[in-house]
Amino acid sequence: MTLPLNPWLAATEAPPVMEARRWLEGVRFPPDRPLVNVSQAAPMEPPPEGLRQAIAEAALGRPEAHLYGPVLGMAELRAQIAAQWSASYGGAIEAAEVAITQGCNQAFCTVIATLARAGDEVLLPVPWYFNHKMWLDQQGIGAVPLPAGPGLIPEAAAAAARISGRTRAIVLVSPNNPAGVEYPAATLRAFFDLARAHGIALILDETYRDFAAAGGPPHDLFADPDWRGTLIHLYSFSKTYRLTGHRVGAIVADRARLAEAEKFLDCVAICPGQLGQIGALWGMRNLAQWVAGERAEILARGAAMAAGLARLPGWRLLGCGAFFAYVEHPHPLPAPDLARRLVREAGVLLLPGTMFRPAGDPRGARELRIAFANLGREGIATLIERLAAWQP
Question: Measuring CA to CA, which residue among 124, 204, 183 is closest to residue 322?
Fold first, then answer.
């Protein structure tokens, strides 16, 4: 007997990072040429010692850290986010307008659950973050591709033509995953105005905002007294404080939206992990200077990545920033075949552009995503050398 299977889940693509890891099976990497893994934006080092110490002390000395907490997260962390975000964005955010989630992916799934049902539509700029597309597919929600404009920056005018009576939200990621580009404040404002005019949500994922090249606040949307009811902001502590294993993300939205989010979160997690929240709160209070140093290092790695790619004949840099470079390769092979061969023949694991575009989009066959922030500058030099030496 075969048990039933949800057809929406069955039709969803396999997790791309896990699929790419399977390409490593049976491949041996000699000691003098270890694998260069640029497939995933995941810090390879643990959090700084002070943050780890704070978590360790809480694990040993705070019994409540091992118990259920509030569904929407620790009051202290919610208040800290509200205060810091209000200051950095020049707006007014209340603690009751912040929710903590088990990572930013859960934050996205949560807000979609409050906004849309099967048969509705959500606009996703392409190239898109594949987990966003996967969740929409699993829910039977239509992902409407929004082709990016020059510099891989989406345009509100193009989005307006794709809004229908079934559209419930527009999703933007800035700095972008997979392209690395930072969206200008004017672009974000144009999308906010468009969403408000149509009575739909603007979901703004700023997971990588702490590594943006531009100084100052990335936008003024929270300074708008009418941000509530249109803007939904997502954030992750994973990259900023190297807390990937602890899964700590956040949502900023109006109270009515979070009341609905609480229903969803109570069913899927009951509450976010206490120790991760304690670590995130300690980081926010104590690591501003350390984060500034991390940002400077990531920007230096981005510059090294861009300079290295400029030396590769035929390669074209489409976007670079935060943790990612998005490139067009010069080889006759389609990107998925090229990526698999690079594992075996060059000791490089990266992702093909087909994982970030709709099926059949020919541009994906020419594109690759490189998560360069995982490498030091020496590692980036090694990556460039291997790409330069490899021939199909």
Answer: 183
Q: Which two tokens stand for residue 288?
A: 């501003």
Tokens 């597309």 label which residue? 133
**Would you give the end-to-end CA distance of the chain in angstroms?**
47
Q: Give tens-digit pLDDT for 121-149.
A: 999 999 999 999 999 999 999 999 999 98
State the residue for tokens 């998560």.
371
Q: 299 φ, ψ to 5°?
A: -65, -40
pLDDT for res 45: 87
Please name the residues in contact with 357: beta carbons below 8 A apart, sequence gap of 6 or more: 126, 127, 128, 145, 363, 364, 367
3-state secondary structure of 370: strand
What is the C-alpha separation between 118 and 132, in angstroms, rounded? 15
The distance from CA 54 to its chain's CA centroid, rounded to whole angstroms, is 26
Find all residues with CB under 8 Å of 142, minimum gap 6, and list them.
Answer: 119, 120, 121, 122, 136, 166
CB 261 within 8 A of CB 100: no
Calculate the CA 200 to chain-centre distance. 22
Report residue 68 CA to chain centroid gap: 27
Two tokens, residue 333: 């092979």
Backbone angles phi, psi at 252, to 5 degrees: -120, 120
Sorted by where each starts, the structural domains of the chain and their CATH numbers stand as 7-46+290-389 (3.90.1150.10), 49-287 (3.40.640.10)
Cβ(44)–Cβ(238) below 8 Å: no
pTM score over 0.85: yes
Q: How many residues does the chain have?
A: 392
Report the pLDDT value the prediction gives residue 5, as an integer from 0 to 100.
92
Instruction: Judge residue 267's burial from the number of C-beta atoms within 10 Å of its C-beta, 0-12 exposed, 13-18 middle, 19 or more buried.
Output: exposed
**In the structure encoding, which two tokens stand for residue 99, read together?**
């929710």
Percentage helix, strand, coil, to 5, in the chain? 45, 15, 40
Q: Cα–Cα distance between 358 and 278 in angstroms, integer? A: 39
Are the C-beta atoms of residues 239 and 219 closer than 8 Å to each other? no
Distance of CA 46 to the CA centre of its chain: 19
Count CB atoms within 10 A of the CB of residue 72: 22
Q: How far apart are CA 193 and CA 230, in angstroms?
A: 9
Residues of the chain with pLDDT under 50: none
pLDDT of res. 181: 96
| Cβ-proximal residues to 207 (8 Å cutoff; 6+ apart), any chain | 104, 173, 177, 234, 235, 236, 238, 239
